[in-house]
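Morning. Coffee machine broken again, so started the prediction first thing and wrote up yesterday's gels while waiting. Chain of 132 residues, entered below exactly as on the submission form.
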Amino acid sequence: MGITIKQNNTITKHLTMKQFNLEEALNGAKLITRGGEFVTDIAQFESLQQEDNILAVTGGKWGWYFPDGRVNSDSNCEDDLFMYTPPMEIYVNVYKRGGHMFLLGSYESLQQAHQNTEHSGYIKTIRVTDEI
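Came back before lunch.
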């Protein structure tokens, strides 16, 4: 997991995407490609005499996929399919004491974080997310 700090003071964690599950996908679960495009339609054509019998639409374009969600059976591609998981978001307070900076607390809202800034040395509150 890599962590980068964006200019708007948002810490972004880049996490591993959830593996594609054909059954969940065909039952309406939200999908996303490795490159970040959302899938709008997906169908399986079991009667086709080919291994890549999954048809999916992303960004207005369609493509064939293997049952594991990959475009190519032997290499990764920006169009490979994954299960979409909503981004996690928390707020943490930043403090400075004795020449050291540290994070304290984990809050579900900005309001909660601001209500818990009674410790000395408070600097600011930052938003932490795993959005890509």
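The CA atoms of residues 47 and 53 lie 8 Å apart. Going to sketch it on the whiteboard this afternoon.
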